[in-house]
Amino acid sequence: MDPAPAARTYDLVIAANRLPVDRQVLPDGSTEWRRSPGGLVTAMESVMRGREGAWVGWAGEAGEAPEPFDEDGMHLVPVPLSAPEIASYYEGFSNDTLWPIYHDVIVPATFHRGWWQSYREVNERFAEAICSVASPGARVWIHDYQLQLVPALVRERRPDVRIGWFNHIPWPAVELFAQLPWREHLLRGLLGADFLGFQRTADAQNFIRACRQMLHLQTRTDTVHVASEDGAPDRVVRAASVPISIDTKGLEKLAKTPAVRARAKEIRASLGNPRTLLLGVDRLDYTKGIRHRLKAYEELLVDGAFSPPDVTFIQVATPSRERVEAYRRLRTEVETTVGRINGDHGSIGSPAIQYLHQSYPREEMAALFQAADIMLVTPLRDGMNLVAKEYVACRHDLGGTLVLSEFTGAAHELHQASMVNPHDIEGMKQAILRAVDSDPAERRRTMRALRRRVHDHDVQRWASMFLESLDIAPRRPQRRVRRELDEQTEGTA
Ligand code: ADQ
Q: Cα separation of 389 and 9, whole Å?
């Protein structure tokens, strides 16, 4: 009998919690895989073009995983998660322990040793799957907070590969990170990488500070020196910012289609062609500042600053993490507030807020962005916030005003936006009023500047910058650094 053919391996391996496809059930009961529309998929498409790449991730359903398969030129490797693991590794440790700690503890974090155990086991499984498809010397790009132990687990098994990790969310101040009972393990897990990418320089610096204070490692500007423990050479890990972006050209092209333009007009007409249409688009997450935004809007209505149908507000709140208690509470609070605002300030055929708890196709999102005069992006903390960039990309007419929280990664790039501190309700009200009365010529100037940034820094550029940083990251301490470190060690001996 012929031996089983050796499994294929790949020069580029992406690992993310989710695979870039969703299983769809067709009317005849059969199923097929469909590309999920996210920005990460688009970015990876551009780097995988012309290369053979594999993507390791969960397929989205509990239980046994399907066999690896090829889809649109990508080799997809599903990682199985059982229902209890979804509850402990994903909803528990990732979204109820790490997420709040990494977002300034806006809600308290929950700590369970069982969740941590499950997080470790699932990270091991991802590492195994990555190693099974990585060619000798491959580049491995790991994504996000769900997989922080994977870099070291891959390095243990495969010292030949280059390992990069990108954090889509903020990295907290040391004082907050310190609350995690497993903080050293998480840092050690990440230090298995050659290059760690963050949304902002401040995030990278927070990480480096944590390594210095908690692991007592030597650090320089943007590198951490990892002393070897087993006779292997010392290593250097670089941590720097590589801010993510969107597929600007693709989205702009979509926004310019006659169908999207017509839909934008239709949306406005269906609201009675308001003088000013405000828009919020977020996952229904407590980090997004939806409650603060609603408070500012409600106060403006109470103050009599404006009223519907002259001014109206669409809030799209995408369903999210509905099995986590903090998210269920938030939904109740937001929906109660929306009900009160409409009860107090709406009238028949003219609500004060249109609240939509649904997901929409990209075309509908582009039409909403084009229809809105004021885009309210007011998170209390956000790694980047792609909605802000998407709004700008869709405004090829140079219309619209972006009101942007200073606590988003996007604020570090979109300087010309109208900046707000979402905790300052009075300040937010003033920013909305300024946007309502803004001068059209000034609006166009601002939008032009914002668009330049989003054009020059798109998702394709982000992906190539990340891979370039991974390729050139120093793996060993430079001789000069090594000498300095030796001298320091001798000095303390
Ligand atoms: P998110 O917290 O999910 O991402 P964000 O960056 O705003 O936040 O991305 C949300 C995406 O979902 C956008 O592309 C948006 O258009 C889309 N979307 C939102 N509501 C939708 C709806 N109802 N229907 C369809 N699409 C909808 C995390 C981090 C962010 C970071 C990104 C990328 O929290 O800070 O910017 O990853 O790194």
A: 36
Range list of H helices, 217-324? 248-255, 258-270, 290-303
pLDDT digits (tens, 9 = 90+) for 158-197: 999 999 999 999 999 999 999 999 999 999 999 999 999 9
Closest by CA position to 282, among listed 422, 399, 487: 422
CA 29 remoteness from chain centre:
34
- 227: confidence class by pLDDT, cuts 50, 70, 90: confident
pTM passes above 0.90? yes
Q: Quick check: CB of 320 below 6 Å from ligand 1?
A: no
Identify the helix (H) or strand (E) that includes residue 166. strand 162-166
Give the distance (Å) from ligand 1 centre to CA of residue 282: 7
Nearest residue (by CA) to ligand 1, atom 22, is 359
Give yes or no for residue 390 CB within 6 A of ligand 1: yes
Indicate the DSSP class of residue 389: H
Angle at 102 between CA 46 and CA 191, to 5 degrees: 65
From ligand 1's centre to the CA of 318, what distance in Å? 9
Q: Is the CB of 368 under 6 A from ligand 1?
A: no
Res 260 pLDDT > 60: yes
Q: How far is the CA of 286 from the centre of ligand 1 (A)?
A: 14
Ligand 1 site, residue 168, Cβ cutoff 6 A: yes
Residue to mutate, 244, 246, 281, ligand 1, most ligand atoms under 8 Å from C-beta: 281
What Å distances lie between residue 169 and 172, 351, 445, CA to CA? 9, 35, 31
Query: How high is the pLDDT of residue 73?
Result: 84
Burial of 331 (0-12, 13-18, 19+ CB in 10 A): middle
Ligand 1 touching residue 91 (CB < 6 A): no
Question: What are the pLDDT digits (tens) for 411-432?
Answer: 999 999 999 999 999 999 999 9
Half-sphere exposure of 7 (CA within 13 A, CB side): 15
Query: Is residue 129 within 8 Å of 77, Cβ to Cβ?
Result: yes
- One-letter amino acid of 315: Q
| Nearest residue (CA) to ligand 1, atom 19 | 282
